[in-house]
Amino acid sequence: MPKIHLLPKEISELIAAGEVIDRPASIVKELVENSIDAGATEITVEIKKGGIEYIRITDNGCGIPPEEAPTAFLRHATSKIHAEADLNTISTLGFRGEALASVCAVARVEMLTKTPDSPLGVQLRVEGGEQVLLEEAGCPDGTTIIVRDIFYNVPARLKFLKKDVSEGNAIASILNKIALSNPSISFSFIRDQTKQLQTPGDGELYSAIYAVYGKNFADGLMKVDYSLGDLSVSGYSSTPASARANRSMQHFFVNGRYVRSRTCSVALEEGYKNAVMAGKFPACVLNITLPFDFVDVNVHPTKTEVRFINERSVFDCLYFAVKTAITANEVTRTIPFPPEERVPSVFTADSGAVQESFRTPVVSREKESSFERRETAGRESSDGDFSSGAERIVASRGTDYRIHLEEPSLKESYQFLRPESFVRRAEDEMHPYPADIAADLSPAAVPLDRTIPAQEELQIRLLGELFETYIVAEINDFLAIVDKHAAHERILFEKLKAERRPLDHQVLLSPFTVILSTEECDVVLDNPKIMDELGFLVEGFGLTMVLVREIPAILDQNDASQLLAEIAINLKNHKQDPSPSQLDDLYHSIACKAAIKAHDKNSEPELLELVRRVYTDEAIRYCPHGRPVLQIWSRSKINKLFGR
């Protein structure tokens, strides 16, 4: 029977070091964080051969007094915490007292350090955890630590290190994140005698981002600044058009500490939902500031995993932060439309009650409009001459339209106006903003109490269609191009989301059948309430077939057949009432199938109304897939293209 015995000191230290130090990048992270905690404003990192052979970190921080220098290399020696209660309010990057002890256990370490009030510094050398040199030395204020021959005494771990290039890239990645979280510190990174990074240290996050990732990445960012109670989110995130193919550029910091957080990533992507294309992901550099006792960083030795006391509040704050930034970015884009003349949107950048403004309004729905029922579109407007009262619209290609538009209230803002209603009525001069808004994610908020001024006269000149897909129009001194399918799809999607009520049915004279799997048939027939809400009335018609008697009023038979198959798959996968996010997917499918298509024939008043709606409504900037709906070129930009 084996006997229980204590491990020798040198073995136990190697085991403990393995929890903190697993590659050169771990050494750089721990030592640079110590420099930051020491109050440094300039930090230089130099490596050779991926950091395996040589790492030197120099800072201008407070330094270490000569009498305390040997103690710094002992395990659990720290100046960051003094009592158990301090673990609940950790404000420094380091606090465990393990970094230096772990580094010197697996490498040869030399330290030069000096405090501002000491005439001389101290030189200390430790190899394999044993002190081999301690003497006075002349050196500048601050600390320099040199690490050589990592894992020289642990060959088993040395052979698992990657190539020099890979290890060097890992160090560069760590430094990039630290530089982004500390824009007031100037970082230099020298790799094999070549400087690869230099941040200005001017305190501006944008400057740090520019230095780390370059001009192209920085140009695609928008500012984020939002507070919710004791929490705040600040930094930059990518514009929807600058979304990336993966999540590698999502950087989250909690009180200045880089963290990996599923909660933050999900909140970010939910905020961008329906604003970026499927398969694309937003990039960000966001710092979440919250009371220190609201987060536990003492979870893992690497300190990149944290636990929040209230993850919901963190989710909400981050979600509304990016949602507000997206809205503000769209408001301030190149569209030269006075704010008071824009069609009111449920997405507003009013930070006073932003949670309320992201909630979904209850919207009434007409049975037909010129775009919602595209099978009848054109019959109402084929002669191009519509009268209402004393006003008249003459639709001729290339003609200036001076349109007196009836201002839609928010209860009508997700549908097109019929041509006969283009004249504004006097009683519609002012419309109240509805306060009966339902929320899925937001906490309670004070209802809005505001009025939206009626829209002023617009001057639009319809130039035509490009490839029977894009509407081209001149609006004041701007050229606008609108993707008509994407625009109408987004309008219908927002309308369906806003209503959140059963869709109108149309009874079929000739029912049709849809072939499904046995399981899909069962789940469709077992959920008649959900099918009714989505506009369907179905009956069983054999083991693998259902008979469809009613379909949503906004779809034709072919589109309804495809949608029913998607609904069946969704219900089979979840086997329960669909959640709001799953309903959004279904509404998206409905909107896509109901929207006008490329190459559809549409009358000029219809195209004109679509341009007006897209141009004035800030919610309609991307289709639910995330594709842009509108592109704008100013007269001055076009003149520059031709050298005028």
Q: Can you describe what's shown?
A:
- It is a single chain.
- The chain is built from 16 helices and 29 strands.
- By secondary structure, it is α+β, with helices and mostly antiparallel strands.
- The radius of gyration is 32 Å and the shape is elongated.
- The protein starts with 8 loop residues before the first helix and ends with a helix.
Main attributes of the structure:
single chain, 644 residues, 5-stranded mixed sheet, 16 helices, 29% helix, elongated
What's a quick, concise take on this entry?
The protein is of the alpha+beta class and 644 residues long. The protein contains 16 helices and 29 strands. The termini are far apart.
The major β-sheet equals:
8 strands, mixed
Query: Would you report the number of β strands?
Result: 29
The radius of gyration is 32 Å
Counted by DSSP, the helix tally is 16
Distance between the termini: 93 Å
The global form is: elongated
How much of the polypeptide forms β-strand, as a percent range?
15-25%
- Class of secondary structure makeup: alpha+beta
Low-confidence stretches: 334-456
Arithmetic mean of pLDDT? 75
Question: What strand line-up does the widest sheet have?
Answer: 5-4-3-6-2-1-7-8
Helix content: 25-40%
